[in-house]
Design a protein that fits this description.
mainly beta, four-stranded antiparallel β-sheet, seven-stranded mixed β-sheet, about 60% strand
Length: about 120
């Protein structure tokens, strides 16, 4: 059984910062890509940032220069540092991870954490 648990969401004023964390636990052999996605009310889920095990990253254009993804492989944890937040960043943020368990690779998702940015 594998679980992803996010933390760090909350309410912040425009221009502020938040740091999200997502820790994977359970019967994990190794983790490939880890990433963050978000879904705002009435919109489809979109990629925010993604990072390979080796450290390559890609970001949504809307967050480039403001958000930074990082990870600690030894802790099976991925982070999202969000700076200069804007009201349009308000969404439920979820982490995902491509995880090898005993002989199979599957995508796992966290439960999501709410980020609300007030103007």
């Amino acid at each position: 059984q594998v679980q992803l648990v996010e933390s760090g969401g909350g309410l912040v004023q425009a221009g502020g910062s938040l740091r999200l964390a997502c820790a994977a636990s359970g019967s994990i052999f190794s983790i490939n890509d880890m990433g963050w996605y978000r879904q705002a009310p009435g919109k489809q889920r979109e990629l925010v940032a993604r990072m390979t095990r080796g450290g390559s990253t890609n970001y949504a254009d809307s967050v480039k220069g403001r958000f930074t993804i990082s990870r600690e492989n030894a802790k099976n944890t991925v982070y999202l540092q969000m700076n200069d937040l804007a009201p349009e960043d308000t969404a439920v943020y979820s982490c995902s991870a491509d995880i090898w368990t005993s002989g199979s690779l599957s995508v796992y998702w966290g439960q999501g954490t709410q980020v609300t940015v007030s103007s």
